[in-house]
């Protein structure tokens, strides 16, 4: 077997592979032995007819397709491994048979490969840095949530509905006089001011009295999930069945201990601030890193193969599906609710997927240019941190780690070094 490759347009490589007559006949023999039990020939038990007899009965090319697959499956992975320093396949190849005879076979494969990205600059750029500070009111807001979760609901009479109330309503919506799917419910509990319904709906319930009926006029947002309702004016016939208000518990040490396990209100506030500060730090770091990548990628050019974009969309779709599962929903049901197809839904993520791929290519390119890596000592330090968190012995914990976990730790260290380097070598600023 001999092969050659050449770079072609749109981040592809063309492989041309020549197989000798002997290699071709060996492949046909393998295809025959693997598939001979599928063929019945008069005068022979199933699977016992010689190859030349089967070929005479079913046609000379009866084993060609399977033989070609044999050659491809055996040699294509080996070629990719041998040329891994020259190119990396990122999708399935487009195969063709250029020549086939008793003298041998020539196969061609057009392979989508990881492209090289041209970066105009990754140093000396003015880039926005995101910093989030935790305020006293943020801690108080968390405390209010604890109160809300432990609030009691009590029936209200003698006054109209107000923001913050829990109202029980019947409603029936229509567009152009026609009722639409999902627009009708009875005895539905709605917290006024929660923003759960279409803009303008809850505000019009405020001021209604128990037993009162009225028409609520609203307009669906232009970006509403259901295509048939986007931007449409709607009328909801609403009846108010009842009003409840929340009675918040008094905040004291006894309440906090029962509700959160903390001994005092001050202890709860201290731990809450620490938690919020960690979240703020993480949020600031993530948004700053995205800001850095966006600034560098803005002037980076790359011919990204469709295979890489589609693969990224697959990952995004998988994450969406997992998130829906946590909410007790199936993707197909969710798509039906949105009134769209899976293909159309995938297309909405195309640009985001393309952006994600470019960002990853930029990261890999700069890491290579700067020669960033992780030492064994640095990897062991991270492993030790993880072992300590789960109260495990370092040696035992490391021994039970698989290669994928170690590779993840190594990559995490390298990417951390990358962003430390980029922050140091660019003009980072925080908006006042």
Structural classification: alpha+beta
* Order of helix and strand elements from N to C terminus: EEHHHEEEEHEEEHEEHHEHHHHHHHE
- Radius of gyration (Å): 32 Å
Assembly state here?
A: single chain
Give the total of beta strands.
13
User: Which CATH architecture of the largest domain is right?
Assistant: Orthogonal Bundle
Task: Estimate nothing, just give the exact number of structural domains.
Answer: 3
CATH homologous superfamily identity of the largest domain: Trigger factor, C-terminal domain
Overall residue-averaged pLDDT value: 94
State the CATH class of the largest domain.
Mainly Alpha
**CATH topology label of the largest domain:** Trigger factor, domain 2
Sheet with the most strands?
5 strands, antiparallel
Low-confidence stretches: none
**Percentage of residues in strands:** 15-25%
Shape: extended
N- to C-terminal separation?
66 Å
Helices, by number, come to 14
Helical fraction:
40-55%
Explain the layout of strands and helices.
Blueprint: E1 2-8, E2 12-20, H1 21-35, H2 51-58, H3 64-82, E3 94-101, E4 104-112, E5 118-119, E6 126-128, H4 136-149, E7 152-155, E8 166-175, E9 178-191, H5 201-205, E10 213-219, E11 233-247, H6 253-260, H7 265-297, E12 300-301, H8 306-326, H9 331-338, H10 342-347, H11 350-370, H12 376-389, H13 394-399, H14 403-424, E13 427-429
Parallel strand pairs: 6-13
Antiparallel strand pairs: 1-2, 2-4, 3-4, 5-12, 7-11, 8-9, 8-11, 10-11
């Amino acid at each position: 077997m001999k092969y050659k490759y050449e770079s072609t347009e749109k981040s592809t490589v063309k492989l041309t592979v020549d197989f000798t007559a002997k290699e071709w006949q060996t492949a046909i023999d393998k295809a025959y032995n693997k598939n001979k039990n599928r063929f019945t020939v008069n005068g022979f038990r199933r699977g016992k007819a010689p190859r030349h007899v089967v070929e005479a009965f079913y046609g000379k090319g009866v084993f060609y397709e399977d033989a070609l697959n044999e050659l491809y499956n055996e040699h294509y992975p080996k070629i990719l491994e041998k040329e891994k320093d020259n190119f990396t396949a990122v999708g399935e190849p487009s195969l063709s048979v250029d020549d086939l005879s008793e003298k041998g076979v020539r196969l061609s494969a057009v392979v989508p490969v990881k492209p090289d990205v041209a970066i105009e600059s990754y140093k000396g750029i003015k880039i926005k840095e995101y910093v989030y500070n935790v305020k006293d009111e943020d801690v108080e807001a968390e405390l209010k949530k604890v109160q809300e979760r432990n609030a009691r609901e009590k029936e209200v009479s003698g006054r109209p509905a107000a923001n913050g109330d829990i109202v029980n309503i019947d409603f029936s919506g229509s567009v152009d006089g026609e009722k639409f799917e999902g627009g009708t419910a009875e005895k539905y509990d709605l917290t006024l001011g929660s923003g759960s319904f279409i803009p303008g709906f809850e505000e019009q319930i405020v001021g209604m009295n128990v037993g009162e009926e009225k028409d609520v006029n609203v307009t669906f947002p232009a970006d509403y999930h259901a295509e048939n309702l986007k931007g449409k004016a709607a009328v909801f016939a609403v009846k108010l069945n009842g009003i409840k208000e929340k009675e918040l518990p008094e905040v004291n040490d006894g309440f906090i201990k029962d509700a959160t396990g903390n001994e005092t209100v001050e202890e709860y506030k201290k731990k809450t601030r620490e938690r919020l500060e960690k979240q703020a730090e993480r949020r600031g770091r993530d948004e700053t890193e995205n800001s850095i990548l966006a600034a560098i990628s803005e002037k980076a050019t790359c011919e990204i193969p469709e295979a890489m974009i589609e693969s990224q969309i697959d990952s995004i779709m998988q994450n969406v599906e997992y998130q829906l599962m946590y909410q007790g929903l199936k993707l197909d049901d969710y798509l039906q609710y949105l009134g769209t197809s899976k293909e159309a839904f995938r297309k909405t993520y195309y640009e985001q997927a393309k952006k994600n791929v470019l960002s990853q290519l930029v990261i890999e390119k700069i890491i290579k240019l700067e020669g960033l890596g992780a030492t064994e000592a640095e990897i062991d330090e991270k492993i030790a941190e993880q072992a300590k968190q789960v109260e495990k012995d370092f040696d035992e914990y490391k021994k039970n780690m698989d290669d994928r976990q170690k590779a993840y730790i190594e990559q995490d260290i390298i990417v951390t070094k990358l962003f430390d380097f980029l922050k140091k070598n660019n003009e980072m600023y925080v908006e006042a």
